[in-house]
Amino acid sequence: MSARLSVDTVLAGLDGIRSDLEAFYRDLHAHPELGHQETRTAARAAERLRAYGYDVSDRIGGTGVVGVLSNGDGPCVLFRADMDALPIEERTGLPYASTAVDGDGRPVMHACGHDVHVTALLGAARLMAQARAAWKGTHIALFQPAEESGEGARAMIADGLADRIPKPDVCLAQHVLPYPAGQVLTRPGPALSATDNYRITVHGRSAHGSSPDRGVDPVVMASMLVVRLQTVVSREVSPLTPVVLTVGSIHSGANPNNIPETAEIQLNVRTYQEEVRQRVKDAIVRIAHAECAASGAPQPPDIDHFGTLPPTINDEETTRRVATSFSAFFGERARELGIQTASEDFSEIPKALGVPFTYWGFGGTDPALYARAAAKGTIATDVPTNHNAAFAPVVQPTLDTGVQAAVVSALAYLGNGAR
Amino acid sequence: MSARLSVDTVLAGLDGIRSDLEAFYRDLHAHPELGHQETRTAARAAERLRAYGYDVSDRIGGTGVVGVLSNGDGPCVLFRADMDALPIEERTGLPYASTAVDGDGRPVMHACGHDVHVTALLGAARLMAQARAAWKGTHIALFQPAEESGEGARAMIADGLADRIPKPDVCLAQHVLPYPAGQVLTRPGPALSATDNYRITVHGRSAHGSSPDRGVDPVVMASMLVVRLQTVVSREVSPLTPVVLTVGSIHSGANPNNIPETAEIQLNVRTYQEEVRQRVKDAIVRIAHAECAASGAPQPPDIDHFGTLPPTINDEETTRRVATSFSAFFGERARELGIQTASEDFSEIPKALGVPFTYWGFGGTDPALYARAAAKGTIATDVPTNHNAAFAPVVQPTLDTGVQAAVVSALAYLGNGAR
Amino acid sequence: MSARLSVDTVLAGLDGIRSDLEAFYRDLHAHPELGHQETRTAARAAERLRAYGYDVSDRIGGTGVVGVLSNGDGPCVLFRADMDALPIEERTGLPYASTAVDGDGRPVMHACGHDVHVTALLGAARLMAQARAAWKGTHIALFQPAEESGEGARAMIADGLADRIPKPDVCLAQHVLPYPAGQVLTRPGPALSATDNYRITVHGRSAHGSSPDRGVDPVVMASMLVVRLQTVVSREVSPLTPVVLTVGSIHSGANPNNIPETAEIQLNVRTYQEEVRQRVKDAIVRIAHAECAASGAPQPPDIDHFGTLPPTINDEETTRRVATSFSAFFGERARELGIQTASEDFSEIPKALGVPFTYWGFGGTDPALYARAAAKGTIATDVPTNHNAAFAPVVQPTLDTGVQAAVVSALAYLGNGAR
Amino acid sequence: MSARLSVDTVLAGLDGIRSDLEAFYRDLHAHPELGHQETRTAARAAERLRAYGYDVSDRIGGTGVVGVLSNGDGPCVLFRADMDALPIEERTGLPYASTAVDGDGRPVMHACGHDVHVTALLGAARLMAQARAAWKGTHIALFQPAEESGEGARAMIADGLADRIPKPDVCLAQHVLPYPAGQVLTRPGPALSATDNYRITVHGRSAHGSSPDRGVDPVVMASMLVVRLQTVVSREVSPLTPVVLTVGSIHSGANPNNIPETAEIQLNVRTYQEEVRQRVKDAIVRIAHAECAASGAPQPPDIDHFGTLPPTINDEETTRRVATSFSAFFGERARELGIQTASEDFSEIPKALGVPFTYWGFGGTDPALYARAAAKGTIATDVPTNHNAAFAPVVQPTLDTGVQAAVVSALAYLGNGAR
Predict the structure, then answer these.
(1) Which residue from D195, D209, D260 is facing C268, i.e. has the nearest CB?
(2) Does any domain span residue B329?
(3) Which residues of chain B lie closer than 8 angstroms to D225, CB-CB?
(4) Is residue C419 domain-resident?
(5) Which of C52, C57, C77 has its CA nearest to residue C67?
(6) Rounded-to-integer distance, Cα C198 and Cα C267, Å
(7) pLDDT confidence band for B419 (50 / 70 / 90)
(8) D263 — phi, psi (to 5°)?
């Protein structure tokens, strides 16, 4: 059986499960759960996987769930969906909008579309299970907690993920994005940025504001540091290398008339290559120390490096294989994805397992709305993006596309050797 | 009667009131009251003034008290003492240390020595009243609220002070300082700085940290502003003109990864001449607007000018007259005061009344402690200064000196024409 | 006749002209001429074109030469080569190295490879003329002066180029680059940067160094301007958009002790999109004015915008057509070109004529040398790049490749309709 | 004989020598000589001193001259006058204006009034010699070369000055200034600033302007250094301590498009206390190193410290003694001198000899012109100051006052013990 025939056979079941999937999605959207608290979501995913015949392990890295469907000799494909929602108050006006709150009473919302990811992967799993004759190998459906905080993937790995599943040959993941629903968008090589956060505390010496010579002014020191850090992007990295360095906060002092003891800045760095990431880190450390030295600071700065996420650098060969399958199936709806300034922890899983991976986007925006905004040049303002309180993927063709992409990509590996 | 004989005659009564004054002082120190809340202090001052024969008006500008003792034709001298304490928890270890709290339960302490000022002025008033034959003219004892916030003097003026007292020929005031007890220190011309506080809010445009081109970064804007403001002192005022410009606080943003909407800095400026004060203000306003323009800010900065105090520029002739009297009485203990970077609102009173004034310091530190610290070069660290929780003037000779200075200075005007 | 057959037919003549071309190239390399002085080069090009049967116009925009070969109905392709050399003293050690000097005795060298471009285009013209039966349409060979100064293309246009030639359907150009000889490298869309130079003079007010308050310090003003300009790249353009802003010079003052009257900086900007180019220009102007305002400058800055070159943004469709032909002919040797930070004036010609264009690179480095350097990671230091005194393309397969690329690309348009 | 009688006796001779002195002065003004070239001036001074009976040594430190008049037991007073002129083209319009040029044909002018100093000291020497009975002790008249370059005093010391003269008890010097002629102005303590010049070369790494990541940008480094140096004055010295730090020049690069290899700044610092001078020097060195470290410079900065002059800190006791004599003789014309931002090398001599000193100013401006300018508030623009091409002291009462001040100050030491 050819890969194409395989795809057609598996996806033939989509019509039969569509209304169930849509209902499942609406329910999930109405019941979002924050990272590490995805108990209801995880339970539903595990329950369904078991019903489909997957061999399920749960409570991996907290609320993580993995289902394995062994279907004879052949490649092993791992597909990952993330489950967590965000502490945002939903303003979509949807009939199934979330009114959920967390333990502290804060509103919670699926503003990043992870509910779409979960639904699409469950749909694909069901179809794969229904049509075992159409493919050969092993399909792993992985439901990850806490992507937003960047901890979930590492938590599952630390909890022994590698020992609980067969070693995959490839890992796949997808994300709904503010592109027209129906499109799938792939990108070989650097696709998502690495994120590094730094908290730098500079130490001065407090004094009355009228006696600057008796103190060391941390307000001036931190300000010079902010100014100097601009040169990392403007002078220290190649103009052809995308890098962002944003100082998102600066805090020092309480009143106009006292020189404070310390100042703190927090900054976020986004890069796309490990060597650039390291070069920027080195520059930040070097500059922070030098600015404190320039001020005659009584001690060097404290530099706290936190909230790191790796760059998502899609394997070229894997991406080409998936993209070729997408072009064959989706035709013109298969596009190239531009490089993204967002970050993801998905790649932690394949890197821990030592296997290649690719990660792609698929559209969730009403195509008509998108086309109108594009015509007016107002996409940035008219199309709600992820993390926005109005982010509301249209149910269809978003869900269908997500299921199809999950099936087509898996069968790019599992479909060829089928009976 | 010569001025000198007059001084000797009035001060002859000091031995008889010393122990009463010391007890009064210790009680006052143990019962500090914050600005505009000096009801107990004001009541005691008014009660005593009335007992001495002064014609008393109270509740001027809130808790202000004025006593007038008319004693025949002659000059009229107004002497001012300030009454308020500070929200500081006392750590002097004195037997009469304050345990008082304000209405919100915050500790209160006479950490600036206003209790010494009140006691010394009441002592002088009692001596002046006891020895009316030794001088001629009018003595006004004024007890002012809320010096620390810079509002008290203006409050008394706004409440009609000028209409409630005879117009003085001169206004006098003194402040206990961390010099050896027993010393009095005068300074003609600029003596205390003007203070101006500014709160500057710069307006950016928030954006995700990964999209700086979609925002206007207020962290960079405020940092550049802090850096640029350094040039006011380094380039825009004469090197021979003392100016301090301290940015005491800077605040913007909450996390590393978002470009905030605004940033706020607070700064304090100290100057000694009105034209310099204005030039610095103009420079601050000019630079703040220009830095916002350089960043392409969506709106100009908000600049809030608050907490102003005028420079205290002692009248040359008045200061010379008082200083000459001090030299005659105190001998070597009469010194020259260096220019001070602190500020005061006393001068608002004589300026409102249109009369000359002088303001001097007198020591409150144990001379032996001071000498040891001076020998070691550790005055800055070993001698507690005003506003420090350990500020504890030695009772004597501090009180005696304060009373003597108040009498000697008044008699520099009132003593010559006496019978 | 198919395009492929057409290519084979035309290029069949290459073996017969190779040794002549190589001799021509070595002679040209030994006789470089600076921009606008390419009289010998232009004369030889014109002479050869005429011999091949082209209809030649010369002295266009100074030394420019155009040859037109009309060969029946069909598309019209213009191919441009640049002729000028650089004021660099050759250090290649080649037997045919230049010892030429210009009128002022300065050494001159073909350090940018324009001698390769001229030779390759003449070779292609000869082959096209020899095999007219293999293609149909019009072939224009254009030899442009003064590319290095960015003036030559505009000079030819200003001199009526459009009226002297048939309107082409497409314009093509190629450049030898430090890639392995034998490779051709194309890039759709932005390929070369725009260049803009700015000279900014800020006006202060001179004063004795001891009286900064009497002056306005242009050294501080220019320094703040340099610092502020860093934020254009770090904050005002998208991290995904390559932009370079280099302040290459700063000059003010003559001795340590006088505040000068003015300061001057010169800066170079490289961008790849017109809107980014304009945004950066706006930012520079805005910041320069604001920094002068911040300093209280007596007058706004003088901003001289000079030395501009447009971005080279290859037409997507044209590039794809040429790239497809290259892949068919060169196979693996047809590559994708990375975006270049260099600039070119070629695109002025097709823009003036209103036609699409593409511009590609081809290798000139000894493949063995390149491979060794690549293996050691020392390409940057071991492979001499354009404008380096040691830049020495290997004669073959560089010339063959240049001729082949010029023929193949032209026949992508002219070959299909042939008899 | 009292000091006062002594003064009257010595100065009784002034009427008799006035016209000769005025002629000498006009001749000297018309024949200015640059530093180390004062051969004519020195010869005339030596000739006159010998004629008055002084024991003369010449060619000390080049053109320096010293005359010693021993007149019995008593104190020894050294009085110094500087002889050199400036490379300025005179524009006074005076009948005796200089038309002199130096060896290179550059115009030379006595624009700093050293001709007045020489004349006044010779006049005083003549009077002292004529009236030996009126004083007792030793009078030393010293004529110093090369004050303007700050080298002359050190040159005389290095040439063995201390061994050629009796050790003085005190050293005195005076300078004509743009105050009303007839006034003498003294200042105890800090009077003239120290000067320190620094040349700082920062080392970057050159690169093409389009590849900042391959270089280290010295333009940015030097600009940040200029900006950072502003904080020395604004934050590191007491607001009550006058300090000037002016970066008078900055130079780097030649064209907009190359990152240069180095940048150089020159700066001038003026201070009034040795400890402040050292603190500022330490701060400059610290900041320069730190800014280079912040940029990742390949090597630390080169810091050349040159052109230093010490602060002139007048001995308190000496100044009081001289000022008291001036008050007695000049009455209201004896004033207090404000602190000056100029520098002098006179103090090198008494410091080398280990003796106290004082230095004062005396007026040279037409009193009527000065009064008009003062009334209009235009002194800064209407009264030509030293080093201005229009600086033209009125001959009288300038010369008389200079002679009188030189005699009165010397007799403050030598007059009391007279017969």
Answers:
(1) D209
(2) yes
(3) none
(4) no
(5) C57
(6) 5
(7) very low
(8) -140, 150
Token duo for residue D238: 């007491």
Instruction: Return the pLDDT at B418.
Output: 42
Distance from CA of C213 to the nearest CA of D (A): 10
Which positions ≥6 away from C111 have C-beta within 8 Å?
A: C85, C86, C88, C90, C386, C387, C388, C389, C391
Domain final residue, candidates B277, B309, B341 = B309
Task: Nearest chain C residue to B279 by CA: give it.
Answer: C213
Q: How far apart are CA B98 and CA B95, in angstroms?
A: 9
As a whole number of angstroms, the distance between CA B118 and CA D204 comes to: 64
Check whether residue A182 and residue A52 sit in a common domain.
yes
Q: How far is CA A133 from the centre of its chain?
A: 33
Residues in A touching D290 (Cβ below 8 Å)? 290-291, 293-294
3-state secondary structure of C207: strand
DSSP E strands: which ranges in B181-257?
184-186, 189-192, 194-203, 207-208, 244-252
pLDDT at res. B1: 55
The answer to whether B229 and B236 have CB atoms below 8 angstroms apart is no
Sign of CA dihedral B335, B336, B341, B342: positive
| Predicted complex ipTM exceeds 0.90 | no
Q: Note whether A205 and A226 are same-domain residues.
A: yes
The pLDDT tens digits of the residues spanning C195-238 come to: 999 999 999 998 888 889 989 999 999 999 999 999 999 999 99
CA-to-CA distance for A355 and A157, rounded, in angstroms? 14
Show residues of chain D in contact with C265, CB under 8 Å: 219
DSSP A134: G
Query: Inter-chain contact A238–D213, Cβ cutoff 8 Å?
Result: yes
Per-residue pLDDT tens digits for C248-304 = 999 999 888 889 899 999 999 999 998 999 999 999 999 999 999 999 999 999 999
Neighbours of B264 (CB within 10 A): 17
Contact A210 D295 (CB under 8 A): no
Question: For A181-193, b where at least 16 C-beta lie within 10 A, e where not — what string?
Answer: bbbbbbbbebbbb
Confidence grade of residue D353 (pLDDT, cut at 50, 70, 90):
very high
pTM recorded for the entire structure: 0.85
Touching A (3+ Cβ pairs <8 A), the chains are B, C, D
On chain C, the residues whose CB falls within 8 A of the CB of D309 are none
Residues of C within 8 A of B210 (CB-CB) are: 239
Among candidate residues B258, B281, B309, the one where a domain is terminated: B309
* Closest Cβ opposite residue C239 in set A230, A231, A244: A244
Do B204 and B292 lie in one domain? The reply is yes
C288 plus C198 within the same structural domain: yes
Out of B212, B236, B294, the one facing C291 most closely (by C-beta) is: B294
The subunits that touch chain B, with at least 3 C-beta pairs less than 8 Å apart, are A, C, D
Does A112 appear as a known binding residue?
A: yes
Tell which of D193, D233, D336, D337 to mutate to test the B interface (max B CBs under 10 Å): D233
Residue C148, annotated as binding a ligand = yes
Contact status, residue D48 vs residue D126, Cβ threshold 8 Å: yes
Contact A226 B220 (CB under 8 A): yes
- Pick from D181, D183, D185, D184: which is nearest to D396 by CA? D181
- CATH code of the domain covering residue B333: 3.40.630.10
Low-confidence ranges of chain A (pLDDT < 70): 1, 417-419
Q: Do residue A296 and residue D289 have CB atoms under 8 angstroms apart?
A: no
Q: How many structural domains does chain B have? A: 2
Pairwise CA distance, residues A86 & A108, whole Å: 6
Single out the residue of C360, C322, C44 nearest to residue C175, CA to CA. C360
A148 marked as part of a ligand binding site: yes
pLDDT in tens, B160-207: 999 999 999 999 999 999 999 999 999 999 999 999 999 999 999 988
